[in-house]
Amino acid sequence: MNKIKLNNQKKIGLIIIAVMIVFVLSGFLNRNSFDAMNKDLILKGSSILHPFGCDEFGRDILKRTQVGMGISVAISFFSVIIGTFFGTLIGALCGYFGGIVDDFLNAIINVLFAVPSLLLALVFVSLFGSGMVQVTVALGIAIVPSFAKMMRSEFKKQRELEYVKMAKLIKVPTARIIFVHILPNVLETFLNCVFIAFNNCILAEAGLSFLGIGVQPPLASLGSLLSDAGGYIRSAPYMVLFPALSLILLLFGIGLLSSGESFHHAYSKRFKD
Amino acid sequence: MLTVKDLKIEFFDHELPEVAVKDVDFTIENGEILGIVGESGSGKSMTAMAIAGLLNRKDMTKSGVIDFDGTDILNSPRCKIREIQGKDIGFVFQDPLNSMNPVLKVGPQVEEAMRIRKKALNMSKEDMKKRALEIMKSVGLDDTERIYQAYPHQISGGQRQRAMIAAALVLKPKLLICDEPTTALDVTVQKKIIDVLKELNQKTGTSILFISHDLSVIKALCDKVVVMKDGLVVEEGSVRDIFENPSKEYTKQLIF
Amino acid sequence: MSEKVCEVKNLTYMYPKSDKGVKNVSLYVNKGSIVGLLGESGCGKSTLAKCISSQLKADSGEIICQKIGYVFQDNYASLNPSKKVGWLLKETIRYSNPAEFENSDEIIKSILEDVELDSTVLEHLPNELSGGQRQRIGIAMALLSNPDILIADEPVSALDVTVQKQVIKLIKKLNESKNLAILFISHDIKVVREICNYIYIIKDGEVVEEGDSEDLFTHPSTEYTKNLLDSSYLENINV
């Protein structure tokens, strides 16, 4: 079957991501509360109890980073699911059917493309209020156009291949042709798109939180942690350092995982007649 | 003029080393047409590429001797081979659409070999164009002015292949290597190309190394033939001998 | 006069905005015969096959055809690269012959015997097989719908000469054992002469000549056919 062949880059990426998952999950073992303020600990540096130090309200930064990263990843995860689902659906319909379906859906995609995704999210948040769900949906919508474009061109290519014509000739239902016959063959592009979208989502969420329209306090996300810490960068640099490091490490891991050779190694040994 | 001896090419891009060509020996005399025939994976193209000095990948080893008019192609420095390529050895590839640059006009591509040696040859733009048109005419292209100005997709497959042959011949090489030049073409066009090659060989005395999977084409064109299978030479000899009494079972199978 | 499994009358199909296509072609295929369509690239022979198998809708004309099985030229593209051969064959039965789906294992077994493959290929992806094996699978898939006529669009053009011979032998065998009519499309005179009983020669979308195989090759009546025969170096081959 399709062997997933891992090169060294992907291995390192996987290790980094595994470490980050352990890091987030270990937050459940961390006794410190993410929103308990303590005026004795305001802007205190690293200590055994608070290895990442404390912020301007005396909250434990380690715990807040763990929670923040969990929330960031969750938001990105769900918005990628939303974006991927609609993006793939629209792209597949456009590419497979062509003609008037393509023209119509493509027009919508082009309009979405013309609106910057940050602006779209801003509009969305100002219409429906800020909060995690709104940010997730807004980011999900922002992913759709680029995803749909990629999928559209892939499906267009596949549609012309003879195995699709063969499936049509034996009267396989169209939905089955699209999702069972063609989709596995565009898996490579699909996965790369997912990784890129995930990456962009984490960054965009950080950006939105930085602007103050993402996750609302006292909850934290990586972005809001960084924006809060920005004001204290001279007096308490560790406040920026730790969340920023973990954000960079996470993105680096995802980047490595999506780079290099393809996942989908259909080609292996060939037999002779 | 060309001697190939004990040629062996091995690849190391998979876990196990793969022998593409082994124990290949043959010679080409001046003015001779040698055919190499074999099925896909028989190593015939690899042999041709090695002779043209086009195999420079790091994950392979080549051993043996390829002696071209006193130059050892396998072991000479890159710059020396570059000098021979295009000037003394011309190469025609299989697919005339992919072997031409689609965004350049045909004429400049025919001139290319002259242009990169402009100083050594001391040719002006007009000289080059004149020579290009002349050589294009000699490979049987009519309407040369139009084709000179056309882009590759604007002319037919047969015309493209002729233009490629013209480009390979523009500096009057001693050896022309044709790697399946007619496989992608229709039979009627194929015949015309074969006729052009034959005529060229008779007129200018250019030696030709002709690679094909089609024995009937080889028979129509070549003097000598080498039959290859799985990287080994199965049989070699004059075309008449091989067709009249093929000694190996494999050769008989190839004759349709 | 034997039964006709396929008859095409005055078929015309023109590609939009071009003068290429099929013009007023009539042909028929008798039960159990192998009919060849011979022509050079771009002459419309594939277009004709697509019209007959209703992949394209003809502009005018009549097509009366019994059940068709279709074999494609490019054996790389005609098998889905991400599915195992067993899955592909099963899928074909599921949709082209749903009544027999319960017995699919036995059907697959017998069809593999017909195309001379053993059952280990079922566990492989198409790309792991050789060109000849893939083309046999393509033929097997076409046979699974129990066709009366097999339309083979250049089925051996992408194969090596020795493999070509094996596949041609297989097609001949299927023709004899199942009394299956075959419409064989090719640009290769040698192959067509080897296999076909009756031949249509097509040029620029029109039938220029037709006739029994040996007749046509020994006494070509049109200039084009003569040219075609002349160009293929037929005298070079001792059949």
Commentary on this structure:
The complex is a heterotrimer of chains A (273), B (256) and C (239). Chain A is mainly α and 273 residues long. Chain A has a single domain (3-15, 59-265), classed as MetI-like fold (Orthogonal Bundle). Chain A contains 10 helices and 2 strands, in the order βααααααααααβ. Chain B is α/β, with parallel strands linked by helices and 256 residues long. Chain B folds into 2 domains: 2-88 and 174-254, P-loop containing nucleotide triphosphate hydrolases (Rossmann fold), CATH 3.40.50.300; 101-172, no CATH class. Helices cover 39% and strands 25% of the residues of chain B. Chain C is of the alpha/beta class and 239 residues long. Chain C has 2 domains: 1-66 and 148-239, Rossmann fold (3-Layer(aba) Sandwich); 80-147, no CATH class. Chain C is built from 8 helices and 9 strands. Chain C has helices at 45-52, 85-96, 104-114, 131-143, 161-178, 189-195, 213-218, 223-231, and strands at 4-14, 21-30, 34-38, 60-65, 68-71, 149-153, 181-186, 198-203, 206-212. In chain C, the strands form 2 sheets. Chain C has a 6-stranded mixed β-sheet with strand order 5-6-7-3-8-9, with helices on both faces. The longest helix of chain C is centred in the last third of the chain and has 18 residues, at 161-178. Chain C is globular, with a radius of gyration of 18 Å. The two termini of chain C are 31 Å apart. The mean pLDDT of chain C is 85. Classes of the chains: A mainly alpha (273), B alpha/beta (256), C alpha/beta (239). At the A-C interface, helix 6 of A face helix 2, helix 4 and helix 5 of C.
